[in-house]
Amino acid sequence: MHKPYNVFYWLALLILPTIAAAEGDDITWNNVLKNQFFAGKSIEESNAAIELDVPYRAEDPAIVPVKVSSKFLQSKDKYIKKIWLFVDKNPFPFVGEFEFFPESGKADLAMRVRVNTYSDIRAIAETNDGKLSMTKKFVKASGGCSAPIGADLDEAMKRIGKVKFRLDDGIQSGQPALTQLMISHPNLTGMQMDQMTRFIRKSHFIDQLRVTFNDKPVLNAKIDIAISADPNFRFYFVPDKAGELKAEFTDVSCESPTSRNVCNKGSSYSQSYTVSP
Fold first, then answer.
1. Pick from 97, 92, 100, 119: which is nearest to 18 by CA?
2. Residue 38 and residue 126: Cα distance in Å, rounded?
């Protein structure tokens, strides 16, 4: 379980989201995040393993597109084991921890995230030899974590847990296949006002995701409130034969948007998709 962040520090970020962080400001990373997640470990700042693609100025802070591209294919001898994503200045900076496997084919990943104020977004990759490398990009956006809930929240709750897969046409056996996973879930941050009731709704978000193909792991993820509403992930897997692509995930509700000490487990969901390369 992650330790709670300094309450006053994150409260200031929440109340004053329009205060612009300076580009290249590594204070949060150096003073908080690096020690919390990678204490005692050496991290090289390099694009040798992955590259990060994000807009410099986001059109919508609640759905900022983020893409991580790997520099090599996954194999048993050399592969990316994990990728961590952080938005430094978010009230809860941890976006997700994503685990990959040789069967993933490529350790590429795309999604939409919330950005609450001007901030670096950083990705850290761990290869199977234990080496860590980091890349980062600065994004100008504000208000993404507290963006109001739409008036159709009740309808969104009725659709919660519904899943849709989309694969590129012409997938080939033994070759990495680009896959899109779309999940219906409001992914509430615990900082948003309900436009109908004018109350702040408690956080309610997907926290665990597991994707398999024929029961072999393709992608595992621990994720949090920075993932946008209706999460949308793009990733790869290798269909070596016909089979079942399956997504399983759970959600959770927490009393505080910036602490995971008091949380209640929610529901579990799963959906399968038949693949015939």
1. 119
2. 11
The SS3 of residue 34 is helix
Place 277 in a pLDDT band, splitting at 50, 70 and 90: confident
The per-residue b/e assignment along 76-115, b for 16 or more CB within 10 angstroms, e otherwise, is eeebbbbbbbbbbbbbbbbbbbbbbbebbbbbbbbbbbbb
* Predicted confidence (pLDDT) per residue in 109-144, tens digit: 999 999 999 999 999 999 999 999 999 999 999 999
Residue 17 confidence (pLDDT): 44
The token duo for 108 is: 């590429």
CA 227 to chain centre: 5
Give the pLDDT confidence of 142-151 residue by residue, as tens digits.
Answer: 999 999 887 6
Per-residue DSSP letter, 11: H
**Model-level pTM?**
0.90
Phi, psi of 67 (to 5 degrees): -130, 130
Distance between CA atoms of 231 and 219, rounded to whole angstroms? 15
Residue 125 CA neighbour count, 13 Å, CB half: 26
Instruction: Looking at the chain, list the stretches that DSSP marks H as alpha helix, in order from N- to C-terminal side.
Output: 7-15, 27-28, 34-38, 153-158
β-bridge mates for residue 66, sequence order: 111
Give me the mean pLDDT over the 155-165 stretch: 92
Give strand ranges (E) for the chain: 43-45, 50-53, 64-70, 80-87, 94-100, 109-113, 119-127, 132-139, 163-167, 177-183, 205-213, 216-223, 232-237, 243-254, 263-275
- Report, as an integer, the average pLDDT of 219-234: 97
